[in-house]
Design brief:
Beta-galactosidase, Jelly Rolls, eight-stranded parallel β-barrel, 3 domains, alpha/beta
Length: about 625
């Protein structure tokens, strides 16, 4: 392993926060000591063992609990992304309070004795919709080039970063706050553009707020090509790699770009992400701890990704792929992390703690235990409304209009949800007729309100045979399963285009969009008669109630036997379910979204209702 220190002797001078030997040890600051290959915190040698926890993946009421468990596990820092789309969901709307109060999160981290590695983006990946970029960027500038020096894109980026960092400045370490490092972009070396002007502009925007009060850094994969495009002059370059990589063989790649200074693994993967239709991804404990110990023995600083994963509630999950591949992410972001989706410690948690204890002093904090879960039994879900009924369409819609060409979700200013495209059949179609269209991402196709098939970006299905020459109307309900969060196709439009019947272009579409953010219009609807198990006449809303005695507990709802849809608990969208595809079956329900007494459950089911119409609350998750 001593080859690493040979690289450190290469005489290349960096311009990043070079340490003044006369520094006052009582002053606040975080910087690089190149001579001794280490960080200095407030003038003293410092090695961090951090864990990733994204504040937007659990209710605010749990922030302190998760952070305290991280500190009890031996960590001395926490890494978090800041999600642009969360804080600016529309061009003229900003959210910085309540669940979006990132400054409050930073303050709690400091109160829990944790330093912070802040990753403001603008692009974050994180298996989040569009990698955290607001989909409305595609609306305002249809030919925009994201993550490049496109001035139209950068103007919005600058507004976002300035707005965020003005709030964060008091929390920088140089001002006595917990933020010791601020990342510039994210894994940019894995993006095709390799735009030097863009990288340097982001550096300058962020540096104008941070200065020398925290350390600017980049994170890239552990390949020379990634670092070559990801490295930014004046910004400390770090790498990421998982437990299957040997640190001794991997860190020399970083040394080619940072010949001296501390070794850093900014994303050491404790688990891995999972897509719908895959086996749930797991990483063995022994592999995680073995290489963690090796890195700490090398005096490397490490951020464990994820230490607590949490949940992609609502429509926030993204997808991976590109032009020819598409794999949407599951709702759970458990990630096989040391703390489960519900924040419970695992064997991996204690094994990692044991390794950290060999290198860092342990805090005097009680160790966490697994919390009890609520077993609230089965609930019977009664159908209350048919989605394709005209009254429901009108009440639940965001926009409606007539278009010659089918518009995308983004042109309808719809970042997530569903769009219904309807038109009359042209005359003189064949029997059978061939309907063909490109959809991003999944579409249910109805002829005269009768389901005739599914189009799928994942399965590359673009064609359906229609065997009704006398049909009058075709309806296509397209679901956005998440904008791409990683890869070279940043401009990931949603919707339907190139629609033809028997090769003839179809015009004059009635188009209705649905964000399904607000389900209050359903309050006035009561039980209806509905016999179909296969939903051949369109999706259905269903309702149930569960009574909880005493203080509510975290729980899981199990939709085994159902088709595909969304679950709301007391108005909170807890995410997508798809048990027939898996691997995730249950959805996590935080206790803070429950209440003593009556709780309402609303289901939006798009494909299949089992005969018993029941879902069950269980105490154990089914993720794989």
């Amino acid at each position: 392993m001593w080859i690493l220190f040979i690289f450190a002797l290469i005489g290349i001078t960096s311009c990043i926060n070079v340490v003044d030997p006369s520094i006052n040890s009582t002053s606040y600051g975080f910087e690089v000591d190149y001579e001794n290959n280490q960080f200095l915190l407030d003038g003293k040698p410092f090695q961090y063992v951090s864990g990733s926890f994204h504040y937007f993946r659990t209710p605010r009421a749990y922030w302190r609990d998760r952070l305290r468990k991280m500190r009890a596990g031996g960590l001395n820092a926490v890494s978090t992304y800041v999600e642009w789309n969360l804080h600016q969901p529309q061009p003229n709307i900003w959210k910085w309070t309540d669940e979006e109060d990132v400054v409050a999160f930073l303050k709690i981290a400091q109160e829990e004795d944790l330093y912070v590695l802040l990753r403001p983006g603008p692009y974050i990946c994180a298996e989040r919709d569009a990698g955290g970029l607001p989909p409305w960027l595609l609306t305002l500038v249809p030919d925009i080039k994201l993550r490049t020096n496109d001035t139209r894109y950068l103007s919005y980026v600058e507004t976002y970063l300035n707005t965020l960092l003005e709030q964060v400045e008091p929390m920088l370490r140089g001002n006595g706050g917990p933020v010791i490092m601020v990342q510039v972009e994210n894994e940019y070396g894995s993006f095709h553009a390799c735009d030097t002007a863009y990288k340097e502009r982001l550096r300058d925007i962020i540096s104008a707020h941070v200065g020398t009060k925290a350390l600017l850094y980049t994170t890239d994969g552990s390949t020379e090509s990634a670092l070559k495009c990801g490295k930014i002059p004046g910004v400390y370059a770090t790498i990421d790699f998982g437990a299957s990589s040997d640190p001794v063989a991997t860190f020399p790649v970083m040394r080619k770009f940072e010949p001296s200074g501390p070794l850093v693994n900014s994303e050491y993967y404790s688990g891995w992400l999972t897509h719908w239709g895959e086996v749930f991804q797991r990483v063995p404990i022994y592999r995680v701890t073995k290489n963690l110990k090796t890195m700490l023995a090398m005096n490397a600083s490490v951020n464990i990704y994820m230490f607590y994963g949490g949940t992609n509630f609502g429509f926030t999950a993204g997808a991976n792929g590109g032009e020819n591949e598409f794999s949407p992410d599951i709702t759970s972001y458990d990630y096989d992390a040391p703390l489960t989706e519900a924040g419970d410690p695992t064997d991996k948690y204690f094994a990692i703690r044991d390794i950290i204890a060999q290198f860092l002093p342990m805090p005097n904090i009680p160790l966490p235990t697994v919390k009890p879960k609520g077993d609230y039994g089965s609930v019977f879900l009664a159908p209350i409304a048919k989605f394709l009924d005209k009254d429901i369409l009108k009440e639940m819609s965001v926009t409606a209009g007539t278009y010659d060409e089918p518009p995308t979700f983004e042109l309808l200013s719809l970042g997530h949800g569903y769009v219904l495209y309807e038109t009359d059949f042209p005359t003189g179609v064949n029997d059978p007729a061939v309907f063909k269209a490109t959809v991003n991402d999944r579409a249910l196709v109805y002829v005269d309100d009768y389901l005739v098939g599914t189009l799928s970006r994942t399965l590359k299905i673009k064609t359906l045979i229609i065997q009704n020459p006398y049909a009058k109307r075709i309806s296509v309900l397209v679901e956005n399963q998440g904008h791409l969060n990683f890869g070279n196709l940043a401009e990931d439009w949603k919707g339907m285009w190139k629609a033809t019947i028997d090769g003839k272009k179809i015009n004059n579409w009635n188009v209705t969009s649905f964000s399904l953010d607000n389900i209050q219009p359903l309050d006035k609807y009561t039980t209806i008669n509905y016999a179909n198990e296969n939903l051949i006449n369109g999706p259905v809303f269903l309702r149930a109630f569960v009574n909880i005695e005493g203080e509510p507990l975290d729980t899981y709802i199990d939709p085994t036997g159902w088709g595909k849809g969304i679950i709301y608990i007391n108005g909170n969208n807890i995410g997508r379910y798809w048990p027939t595809v898996g691997p995730q079956v249950t959805l996590y329900v935080p206790s803070v979204w429950l209440k003593t007494g009556e709780n309402e459950i609303i289901i939006f089911e798009t494909e299949y209702i089992p005969a018993n119409r029941k879902m069950k609350f269980v105490t154990t998750p089914k993720l794989g």
